[in-house]
Design brief:
Layout (H helix, E strand, L loop, with lengths): L1 H22 L9 H6 L4 H30 L3 H24 L2 H27 L1
Helix pairs in contact: 1-3, 1-4, 3-4, 3-5, 4-5
Subcellular location: Membrane
Protein name: MAPEG family protein
Keywords: Membrane, Transmembrane, Transmembrane helix
Length: 129
């Protein structure tokens, strides 16, 4: 089960990796970072910031899914597998987002969402017995 918990930690930190990429550069203004990001015309910075925001949106359901599955008594190996798949897909999501490969971004986003749904469904089915 510790693998899934490490995946939750990685997923929690992933948004910060994308925003660090968005803010990288010599002109970054830390006095008003949100306004600075909003003014960026560099498409890579904009997409990295969007990946940052999307990673935050994806985190809560994933963390809830892991905890639900664990509390319901779902097999730990299955939870670990789904958690690792989620993290891998979310890393790819950010890479594809920044690289502007929209079809692959959408496909891996869907795959990560399916991992979350699988965690929650497994929890519900286990509790229902």
């Amino acid at each position: 089960m510790s693998t899934a918990y490490w995946c939750v930690l990685i997923a929690a930190l992933l948004p910060y990796a994308w925003v660090a990429y968005a803010k990288a550069g010599p002109r970054y203004d830390n006095r008003n970072p949100r306004a600075w990001l909003a003014r960026q015309e560099n498409p890579r910075s904009q997409r990295a910031n969007n990946a940052h925001l999307n990673a935050f949106e994806a985190f809560a359901p994933f963390a809830a899914g892991v905890l639900m599955a664990q509390l319901a008594g779902v097999d730990a190996a299955r939870i670990d597998l789904l958690a690792m798949a989620f993290v891998g897909l979310r890393v790819l999501h950010g890479v594809f987002y920044i690289a502007n490969i929209h079809l692959m971004r959408s496909l891996v986003w869907s795959g990560a969402l399916l991992c979350v749904v699988a965690l929650m469904v497994q929890a519900a089915m286990t509790v229902a017995g």
